[in-house]
Design a protein that fits this description.
The complex is a heterodimer. Chain A has helices spanning 22-25, 60-75, 78-82, 130-143, 174-177, 220-229, 359-372, 385-407, 410-422, 458-468, and strands at residues 6-10, 16-20, 29-31, 39-41, 48-55, 87-93, 169-170, 180-190, 197-202, 211-217, 245-246, 283-284, 295-297, 314-315, 439-440. By secondary structure, chain A is an alpha/beta fold. Chain A folds into two domains: 6-228, no CATH class; 232-356 and 409-445, no CATH class. In chain A, the strands form four sheets. Chain A has a seven-stranded mixed beta sheet with strand order 1-2-6-5-8-10-9, sandwiched between helices. Chain A has a three-stranded antiparallel beta sheet with strand order 14-13-15, with no helix packed on it. In chain A, a hairpin with a 5-residue loop joins strand 1 and strand 2. Residues 303-309 of chain A have low confidence and may be disordered. Chain B is of the alpha+beta class. Chain B contains three helices and seven strands. In chain B, the strands form two sheets. A five-stranded mixed beta barrel of chain B has the order 1-2-5-7-6. Chain B has a two-stranded antiparallel ribbon with strand order 3-4. In chain B, strand 1 and strand 2 form a beta hairpin. Classes of the chains: A alpha/beta, B alpha+beta.
Chain lengths: 469, 171
C-alpha cells in the first residue's frame, strides 16, 4: 500500500510547496526486474520527477484537495504503486487571482474553451505569441522552483523513424523524443476543465529545444499516463474513417505503442497476452469465449494529431485507463448499437477504467519506467541510443518479460479479467461481450502461392490407406 | 541469415583485434604507430558491427510462437472445391457438440492438399482420425485467421501441426 501523506512548506508570495508520498520514494527502491520478489535501489539521478502545478486555483486548500484525489487515483493503478519508489512527486501551489478562463487571466493563463474544457486550438503551449511566451515563462519558473530536478534528455540522435509513404505517420515520432526530458514530467491541474490533453512544452530561448511532457488536465492520471508511459488514446475518435499511422519496422522500447496498425499475427506485440499466448484458453458451445488480448477496434492516438480515427487501429482490451468515450461503440458497429441515439447523433460508450491499465499498457509503462531508471541497460550494450532501444526490447521479450509476468502475476490477472468480461452483456438485447463485432482475431501472415499440385506419391497413398484402416 | 552473417563478421573482427594486440606487443617506432592506428580502425568496425547486429536481431525478433488450440476432434472433412482441402474442427470436451470457438465463431482448421506440404498434412490425418476414434485430446497449432472462410467470416485457420495425448492425459 503506497503512502498517501502530503506535506507542505509555505514559500513567499502565497506559494506552497508540497511533497507527495515521500516515504514511497525517499529510499529509491523499486522491484528488481531480474530477481522477482527482490528490490533494487536506483541511482539518485535516475528518479523520475513528477511536478504537479495548478492553474486557476484561488485557494490553496482547493489545490491540496485536488492533490489528495490525484495521489489516490495515481496509486490506484497497479504499476504506479509497484514502482512508487522511482516516482519523486512534488507540487507547487501558485495563487491565481481568478479562475482559468478564455481571457487567460489565471496565474499561468491556460485558456478555457466555450465547452468549458481547456482550449487546445493552435497548440498555444508551444506556439509563439506574447501570451503564450508568458505562459511558458511562468510555467518554467515554477518547475525550476525545484532546483534538484533530473534534467537528462533523450539525445538528438535518437532515431525511431523509418521511410514512410506520403501522408503516413508514426505514433511515436523521433521528433517528439529528441530533446525531451527523460526523467521529468509535469501535471498541470486546471480547475474546472472537464477534459484534458497532453502537450510538449518547450523552454524559452535559448533552450527552446528542451521539452517536457505536460499532462494538462481534467482526469489527470489518464493524461499523466500519456506523458509518463508514452501511451496513446484507445478510444474511437471518428467512426468510419481510416488511420494513416504505421507501426515501427524495428521494435524498440522507444517506439513501441499501445495502439497497433496491423492485425497480422506476426506483427501483434501483445500476442503473449492473447488466448494464444502464455495462458492458452478457449471455449466451446455457448460458453463465453476469452476476449483479453485480441484486436479491439480503435485508437484515438491523440486529438491533436491528424489521422486520429477508427479503421485500421487496434488495442488489446475492451476497457482501459487509456480508453474513453468519444465515438466508441458499446457492442456493435451496426446501427443497433446503443450508442446510436436514433436521431443521427452518437453518445460514445465510456470504456475508460479508472482503476486499471489494460495488461499491454501495464507492461508498456513498466518498460518505460525501467528504461528511465536505467534498469534495462547491461554491460556491453551498444553506446548508441537507437541501438540500445532495440537491444532492450529484445532483452525484454527474451529475458525480462518472464520476471515481469511473475511480478504482477499476469496469469492470475488474465484469469480475473476473463472472468470479469465473461459477465459483460452490453448488447442491445443483452448479448454477451464475446459476441461483439468490436474485436477480431489476428490475421494470418501472407504466404507464397503453392506450386501446382502433383499426383499422390506412393508413401502418401500408404498414409491415406493407413488412415482409412 | 543476415544476422548470422553479421555475427560471423563480428567474430572475425574480434579475432583480428586480438591478433593486432598481439602484434603491437612486438613492434616499436613507426610500425607500432601504424599498427595502433589499425587497431583503432578495427575497434571502430567492431563497435559498428556490434550495433548492426543488435539492430538486426531486434528486427528479426520472433513476436510469438505459433498459436495453438486444444480440444477433441469432432469432425474431419475433405472437400475438392476450388482448392482441395482437409478440414477438422474441435469440441471442448469429448463426446459433445460444444464446438471450440476462436473469437465468436466456431473454428475450422484446414490444410491445403494442393500444397507441397501435402505429405506432412497427410501424416497428420491418421493422428486426427485416431484421436477422434479414441476420444484423445489434440493440440492443433495454426496461423492467424485465413483469408477464406468455411461457414462464417474469420472461422478458418491453416493448420501447422497436430499433437495427440492419450486419454486421460490432458494438455
Amino acid at each position: 500500500m503506497a503512502d498517501l501523506t502530503i506535506t507542505e512548506t509555505a514559500l513567499g508570495d502565497g506559494r506552497v510547496r508540497y511533497e507527495l508520498g515521500r516515504p514511497n520514494w525517499q529510499a529509491r527502491r523499486i522491484p528488481d526486474i531480474r530477481s522477482p520478489g527482490a528490490t533494487v535501489q536506483i541511482a539518485d539521478d535516475r528518479l523520475i520527477d513528477i511536478v504537479v502545478l495548478g492553474d486557476g486555483y484561488t485557494d490553496a486548500a482547493d489545490f491540496r484537495a485536488a492533490l489528495t484525489t490525484w495521489l489516490q487515483e495515481l496509486y490506484a493503478i497497479e504499476v504506479y504503486e509497484r514502482f512508487a519508489g522511482c516516482l519523486r512527486i512534488r507540487a507547487l501551489y501558485t495563487p491565481s487571482s481568478e479562475a482559468a478562463s478564455a481571457s487567460r487571466g489565471s496565474y499561468y493563463g491556460c485558456p478555457i474553451a466555450t465547452d468549458g474544457g481547456i482550449d487546445q486550438k493552435g497548440k498555444w503551449w508551444e506556439a509563439s505569441g506574447a501570451r503564450n511566451d508568458a505562459f511558458r515563462e511562468a510555467f518554467w519558473a515554477s518547475v525550476d522552483t525545484f532546483d534538484d530536478l533530473h534534467l537528462r534528455r533523450y539525445p538528438d540522435d535518437l532515431t525511431t523513424n523509418q521511410e514512410l509513404s506520403s501522408g503516413e505517420l508514426l505514433v511515436i515520432d523521433q521528433d517528439e523524443l529528441r530533446g525531451l526530458y527523460r526523467n521529468l514530467v509535469v501535471s498541470m491541474l486546471v480547475q474546472g476543465g472537464p477534459s484534458g490533453f497532453n502537450g510538449l512544452v518547450p523552454r524559452p530561448a535559448p533552450d527552446q529545444d528542451h521539452y517536457v511532457k505536460v499532462a494538462f488536465g481534467a482526469y489527470e492520471i489518464h493524461e499523466l499516463s500519456h506523458a509518463l508511459g508514452m501511451l496513446h488514446d484507445e478510444y474511437i475518435h471518428h467512426r468510419t474513417e481510416e488511420v494513416k499511422y504505421r507501426d515501427p519496422v524495428i521494435p524498440s522500447v522507444f517506439s513501441l505503442s499501445n495502439v497497433r496498425f496491423s492485425d497480422r499475427v506476426d506483427q501483434v506485440p501483445w500476442l503473449h497476452l492473447s488466448p494464444w499466448g502464455l495462458e492458452r484458453r478457449s471455449a466451446g458451445g455457448q460458453s463465453p469465449s476469452p476476449v483479453v488480448g485480441w484486436m479491439w477496434l480503435g485508437g484515438g492516438i491523440g486529438l491533436l494529431k491528424p489521422g486520429s480515427r477508427e479503421i485500421g487501429a487496434w488495442h488489446s482490451e475492451y476497457r482501459c485507463l487509456m480508453n474513453g468515450g468519444h465515438d466508441n461503440y458499446l457492442f456493435t458497429q451496426l446501427d443497433s448499437d446503443p450508442t446510436n441515439l436514433g436521431d443521427g447523433t452518437i453518445k460514445g460508450a465510456d470504456l475508460r477504467d479508472k482503476t486499471r491499465l489494460c495488461l499491454w499498457c501495464q507492461e508498456l509503462v513498466t518498460i518505460r519506467l525501467l528504461e528511465k531508471t536505467d534498469q534495462l541497460i547491461e554491460p556491453g550494450d551498444p553506446a548508441d541510443i537507437t541501438a540500445q532501444g532495440q537491444v532492450w526490447y529484445t532483452r525484454w521479450v527474451q529475458e525480462l518479460r518472464a520476471a515481469y509476468l511473475e511480478l504482477y502475476d499476469v496469469r492470475g490477472q488474465i484469469a480475473e479479467l476473463e472472468d470479469y468480461y465473461a459477465k459483460f452483456t452490453p448488447g442491445p438485447a443483452g448479448e454477451p461481450l464475446w459476441q461483439s463485432d468490436l474485436y477480431s482475431v489476428p490475421k494470418a501472415a501472407p504466404a507464397a502461392a503453392p506450386p501446382p499440385a502433383a499426383p499422390l506419391a506412393d508413401d502418401e497413398l500408404l498414409l491415406v490407406t493407413i488412415a482409412a484402416g | 541469415m543476415a544476422c548470422e552473417s553479421l555475427a560471423q563478421s563480428l567474430a572475425g573482427l574480434e579475432q583480428r583485434e586480438k591478433d593486432q594486440q598481439d602484434l603491437i606487443k612486438l613492434l616499436n617506432g613507426h610500425p607500432l604507430e601504424v599498427a595502433k592506428a589499425r587497431l583503432t580502425e578495427i575497434q571502430r568496425e567492431i563497435a559498428k558491427t556490434s550495433d548492426d547486429l543488435a539492430a538486426c536481431r531486434a528486427a528479426n525478433l520472433p513476436v510469438t510462437e505459433s498459436a495453438s488450440t486444444v480440444g477433441y476432434v469432432g469432425t474431419v472433412e475433405v472437400e475438392t472445391d476450388a482448392t482441395p482441402r482437409l478440414w477438422f474442427s474441435l469440441t471442448a470436451s469429448a463426446g459433445t457438440a460444444d464446438w471450440v470457438k476462436i473469437g465468436s465463431v466456431r473454428a475450422w482448421f484446414t490444410m491445403d492438399l494442393s500444397s507441397t506440404e501435402r505429405p506432412y498434412y497427410l501424416a497428420m490425418l491418421p493422428l486426427l482420425l485416431e484421436a477422434m476414434r479414441n476420444g484423445d485430446q489434440v493440440s492443433a497449432s495454426h496461423g492467424g485467421v485465413a483469408g477464406f472462410q468455411k461457414q462464417a467470416p474469420n472461422d478458418s485457420f491453416e493448420a501447422i501441426g497436430v499433437r495427440v495425448l492419450r486419454a486421460p492425459i490432458r494438455f
